[in-house]
Structure formats: structure tokens, C-alpha cells
Hints:
By secondary structure, this protein is mainly alpha-helical. It is built from 26 helices and 8 strands.
Amino acid sequence: MSELSPILKTILEQLGRQFGQDQKPVTTLALLRELRTRGNCGAWKVLQHAELLFLDLPEPVDEGDSGILSTSMKGAWVSAEFLAKSSRMLETQHLLRGLAREKTGAAGRWLRDKGFEEDRVDWSQFSDPRSPAETPPDLSGQRMVHIFGTITYLAMGMDDLLGPFFSLMGLLFLTQTVDLFSRVRGWKFDPERCARCRTEPEIPAMLDSESGLCRVCERKVLSIPGRNYLLLLLFLTLTSAFYMQLYQPIGLVLANLGLSILLTGVATFVHELGHLLAGVIAGYRVVSLHLGSGDLRKGFKLGPIWIYLQAQPVGGMVMSLAPRTRARRWRSVLYSLAGPGANLFMAWLMWKSLDGLPGLNLSQAWCQGLQPALTFFYVNLAMAINNLWPRYSVAGSHGQLPSDGRAALDALRAGKQASPKLLETLTLLQAGIYRDFGNHEAELLFLDEAVLEPDRAQKLHRMFLLGELERWEEALAILPELLEPDVTMTPEQRSVELNMLAWSQYMSGDLEQADRLSAECLELFSELSNNLGTRAEVLAARGHLAEARPMLEKAIQVSLCHRSTAHNCKALARLAALQGDLGEFERLSLLGRKLDPEKAAYASAQDAVEDARGRGHWVPKAGVGPP
Length: 627
């Protein structure tokens, strides 16, 4: 997805909140109505220029249910993303132009009925206001506020009457404090150079448009949350040892504070284990256990379950697939409440073991000695309360996932049978997390479960996932359904389809069909890196190396996605090896490793030539030209 302009982000957040309230997809008409209220955006200026600001809009209509966005809205979005490639930021005027191009949506029909002609608008005159590069928030200030809040609550816990209440509030605050201390500070974005090491990127994809870091620094930063977490524990250990010599009660409080941070990790594991066991009992298919949150640090498979260790040491998640035929309300409620229930059960066990203590005042007990049992009682109680609070939390770039309390509430409101719409929306959001982790098998599982009647875009994505898993027989079985174009599609949408179809044929070895489809794709849209890359690889496989090389070079220069660019670097390195250009081969191999070290680069030019031969590609021989 392209980077969004600030005002478009605000509009989408507003529409997303509406979706969360009524579970109806965002339609083209809903977006157009919202664009007409934003007086400083590019789309508003276009509508004002066309004298369409104050004309009555039609009544809302059903545009097909495709999750958060309606099917028509998805089509408009695809066109808008293509139109935004030149500016590298998706703005409101791109989305308005996408609405005008899309043929089935109510907004596009209304625009055309009112005489709006896309070709008569000088789109270069209209753009969203660009906010200056913002200075990232000062984490040190936020950390001090949270520390002060935690200490204040714990200090107020010394009161005999309200001590247990304030102690609990202190531990609820402590989780956010630890999260802040393990979080990585932001950098001021600079489009010309890495905000951390200050080097200029060799190609656009080398610089992440959100963090402002080059790909090398981005990977180094992944280790910072865990390091900060350990440093926090080390600091508490050393200071508690120091104060034990000066004033023992302070030393004991600091030691217990460090203990509570460690026990939060144990309570998190207990929480997720509750979800996992409940999932098995309710007939769910447990797919993965996530310990931590944020970027992936390490992933492995333990039996049928993927285990993910993530950069932020605070938090966790179990992801499971509910059986649709048996996804009744009580099963969903049981699964949602099992995590907090496990914490409450553990708190009850701790409480039973505390019968010999004179009271449950944590703050007072911390001043008297190490209190693992009492602290674990409070930590589990705080975690249960935190997760039962009905709210939505942001899941990266994929939307919002509900807390356990919110999920249980949604399940109860859904009636006897869990809402298929709600299940589909949540399942597609979860599939997006696997996409970020590069787990195509799990993403395919969730996609197949979520979508009962897939549209063309979802069939195409399924084809892509099957291809990534090298299940080409299944992938090519989808091909006949997509060869004939849908008359309602925009050229940009058809271009996406043709590129995937061409790539599938190329990977399955049908170079003649791949040649035809990739040429047709490039005719529709010649500036997209994926289209250029696919066409170049097909040409190179057929021996047209001189024609393929500039295409791949252009694809590398125009792409913003580091993974696809790393793939194109490897393809161009293979082409350089076939042409005997060893210097270029080494340069491209190094660049590919910087972009994505997980994509194995060729060890030598000879390995690249052998790979081309193994793929059935044309390999040059002395004195022999291309076929």
C-alpha cells in the first residue's frame, strides 16, 4: 500500500470507526460524502472546481460486501494506487479519480451523471496539504510521566483502607510503562537520507517511507526493544542492590518492581495458554502462538503450531480458526474469555496460597521483603482486567483487533450464530499479520476460511499464495476463471490480474503464454515495477537479454517495496551473470542482501547461470545468439 497523506488517513480512520459501529462496509458513496466535508483536501478542490459540492447525493446502495471495503470501493482503491505511483503518496484526489474510473460504484455513476469528466481536470493543480516533517514524540518525557504515575499509585497503596485498589492501579499502569521503555524512539523523516545513519539510499526502496530508516538500520533497530527491556531490568537490579545498603525498604520495592515485570511475562504466557486450551476444547484450529508484539524476531513451527517471538517484549496473542459450521455464540465467548479466565484462575491459586498473610496490601508487603506470590496474584488480576476492558487495539497496518472483552461482547451481540461478516473481517485482518511475517501457508489457511465466495481479487491473491508455496497445479486451476476480463474493471485492475497470470505461467514453464500475457499487461500500465519485472524475466528466459535488462533496471528504480525490489535485483544479477558482467553481478547481489537478507542471493555468477539453466531458460553459448 502507498503511503497515505495525513488528511486521507484521518478520513479513513473516521470511516473505519463507522465500520466498527455498524459492521457495514465502506462504500464509494460514503467516501465521496466524507471527501465533500474536508474543505482543505485536493478532492474537495476538484469537486468545487466541477461545481459538485452542493448537489444532493443519492441514497446509499449495497455495493457488495467484501470486508471493510465494498467491492466497488476496492476497485476504486486499486485505480487510485496506480494513479499515485508518480507522487509516491496516495492522496484524496487520487481516490476521487479512482471513484470516477470505477464502473459499478454509486459514487462513480453519480459523478458521470452530473457531467464530471476525468480527462478535463488538470489533476496536477490539486493536491492535499503536506504537513512538514514532524519531530517524533519525546519518549523520555512520556516515560517519566508513566514512572511518576506508577510510583504515585504504589505510594498511595500504603494506605490501609484503599491499599489493594491503588496497588492494582499501579500494576495496570506498569504494563504501559514497560511498553514505553522497550519502545524504539522515532526519527525525523528525511526523504533524501536515512534518519539514523544519514546515508543516501542507492534506490528508493532502500528507504522505508514510514520509519525514515534504510533497510540495514531498520533491521538493527529490531533488536532495540528487547535490549531496552533487559536494560530496564538490569537498572532495577543494580539500583535495588545499591539501596539495600542505604535504606532497605526502597531496595526491596525496586527488587519487587523488577520481579513484577518478569512475572508479567509469565502471566502473559498463562493468558495465551488459556486461549490455546479453550481453542482446542471449542474445536478451533490453533494456528500460531505470539509472544510479544510488533516486528518479528524469530519464528518456528512446533508441531502444527507456529511460534512467533516478536520485538516488543510486552503482549502476546493466539491466532485460531473458528469452525464456521459450529461457530456458535458460546464457543466464541468461551474462546475470548479463556485468556482472562486463566489469569483469574491463577490469581485465585495465588490467593489461596496467601492465607497466612495478614493482608493483601501489595505496597506495604513490598517494603518487607520479596513477594513473588502476592505480586503474581496482582499481576494476573491486572492482566485480566486489562484484557476484559472492551476496546479495539491497532494491529499494525491491518486495522483494529478487539480486546478479549470486546470480542466476547461482539459475539454476544451477534446472536446465536456468529456473524459471517464479523468472522470474515477479523479473519482477513489476521491473515494480513501472516503476510507481514511471510507465512504464506498460514495466510492461505485464513483466506480460505474467511472468504466463502471469493471475488476476482481474492482468487488472484489465492493464486499468488499457491504459487509462492509452489502448488502450481492448484494455482493454474484458477487461471481459466481469470483469463476473460471483467467488463467493469479499470485498466489498472486488469493490469494487476494480467501480471499475476503471466507470472504464474512463467513459473509453471509456459513461456509462450507468459510472453503474451506479460506483453498485454505492460501495454495497459508500463510504469509499475511488478509489470516491468515480470515482462523482463519472461524476455530474459526467452533469450532477449538486451531488451530485458533496461526493464529490470527501471523496475528497481521505481519500486518502493524492498521485498519485490530484492527479487528484481536477484533477477537482474542472474541476467548480468548470463551476459558475463561480473562487476554488476556483485553489485546487485550486495544490494539484494541489503534489501532482504532472507532472499538467498547467488553465491557466484556460475550458480546464477546454473539456476537459469535449471529453470529451462535460454543460456548463451559461445557464438550463439538468442533464439
